[in-house]
Amino acid sequence: MGGTLASIALHGAPAHSRPGSRGAPAGHHHRYCLRGAEHPGGPSALAWQPYGHLLLPHRGPQSGEGGHPGGAPQGEGEGDQRDSHHGVAQVREIKRDWRGRLWVFLCQVLHQGERCWVLRYVADRTYQVGESLLPAGTVTVAVYWRDRPYHLWRFILPDGRILGHRCDLSTYPRFRPQAQELEWRDLVLDLWWPQGAPGPYVLDGEEFQEARRWLPFSQVALAERILAFLQRHLPQVLEAAFQERSEGCFG
Length: 251
Hints:
By secondary structure, the protein is α+β, with helices and mostly antiparallel strands. It is built from four helices and 13 strands.
């Protein structure tokens, strides 16, 4: 792409939210996450809390996974996976948020390269992101780059039409090929761009104002810097990202 865009946005950069805007399943289908004292303002004890998450069906964090203090009990949401196709390569995606909550998800792999991983999952029920409903059968293609503090999601309806794109701001992801794991920390802010809309809009701005009291200054500065960049350049970032299919990133 974009060596120019990449260098402006990422190199030298300092090293989620209301359920509706984050994509809660319609009809209050709950998933569960681990909540703990991972930052100074977090709760002192571990507790299970219901939490809807867009197109990330919960597999149930395993004891000790992701290095979370105390691990997590098994059983909650067990067997509810993103993709159940046998014989397809899969990877565990580990997400942490500013409240200290931890998720472990099982995803289908489309591509694993040195710099870029591409994952795929299919909704088994209706979900919501922003004000848009994603029906069951919606396919999500998610792109993660080792050197970018954000990742892109493309939502494809069952009839093949693109519903929209979402960009989640995060710390730089950690790829662990031998363990088949990808880990990232959510920086709260997201950009949602419905197909046909004049431009993207920010999700979870109010929560970010609360989270910034607990996030390290470097992460707050990174989120603000990358948000400002993406608000100006998201069209070019999206175009370049999906053009990389022919350059080997997507396999």
